[in-house]
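Late entry, written up from scratch paper. The run itself happened at the end of the previous shift, but nothing got recorded in the book at the time, so transcribing now.
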Amino acid sequence: MKILVVNAGSSSLKYQLFGLESEKRSVLANGLCERIGIDGSNLKHETEDGRVYNVEVEMSDHTVAVKLVIDALLSADHGVLSSLSEVDAVGHRVVHGGEKFANSVIIDEEVKEAIKECYPLAPLHNPANMMGIEACEKAMPGIIQVAVFDTAFHQTLPSKAYMYALPYELYEKHAIRRYGFHGTSHAFVSEKAMQLMDDPNAKIITCHLGNGSSIAAIDAGKSIDTSMGMTPLAGVPMGTRCGDIDPAVVTYLLEHENLTPAEVDNLMNKESGFFGISGVSSDCRDLQAAADEGNPRAELTLRMFGYHCSKYIGAYTAALGGLDAIVFTAGIGENTPRLREDILGKLGYLGIELDKELNYGKIGDYQLISAENSKVKVYVIRTNEELKIAQETAALKV
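Output as recorded:
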């Protein structure tokens, strides 16, 4: 079975073509369309056997971009398909599914309307995701299109976890509640951890730590709480997002900094977090280098991040009523052993013992980094959201 996975942004489109067999999987081709609708747009395409195709070409919209992707996949020089009919289905990442979708679904007109209804909840993401869907429908008529939602995995949250203590009428009118994000990643790595532990009932805390970060409490494969909220702004400090703050800060800024609501939103989403605190960068690698050179604000940023991650893990251990494993994943979680050590160093009371040699050693697709006598297992598991989307799509195609 061949599944094309598409992740469309407002001016970009990432794709991977998977070959899925019962016991094997492979990425037959992958690529990126950049600067769609902007001068200097280009396509980068690479095949499983190492053939590379880069071209700067005008892409006025996502329909043109998808046509170029199809041409690349069918090319005699750098293609991997002899016919478009070889594609069994297309899986689309959709950021926000609101309360309507607890699972991936085959896209029809009703599903598209529901995705559009979530535009106010994810104005930067859902419209772009829809552009990718409609472009693929136009370019690949007759091929099944599937929506895989970032929020779906967290639809198992109980009401006591997802409700905000605002007037209930606001929930009924506007669906203001906690939704959570990075669901495909949390699902992928928690499933892998349960396999490694041979325990389908394990209590697991998954830490998806990257430019955007979220932490989830997972009980027997079901998410029961997560750090992001109605939007991806909540939770721990991130690359440019502030994470949790006193809500009164917003009204204070409106009044005392003479900012508009849009300006406050931009400040909290794009000018805060690592970048705002450090004044150096939104990239954790740059912060670590600056901290090593004695930059106190870079050091403060890293300490804040580790502290808030530790705090969430402690809170979610209580929410779960115990803890069997912690999983680190995504760019920072997979590649920053010093931060993993800092986060876990505050959690010794849980009986966590880190194996420093394993923590600082080479990490493959997965690695146990806790000591043999640790009461809680700690894993680093490389996430693969695209593969999870492909698997979800293939399951619906069958």
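The first helix runs from residue 62 to 74.
(Scratch paper discarded after transcription.)
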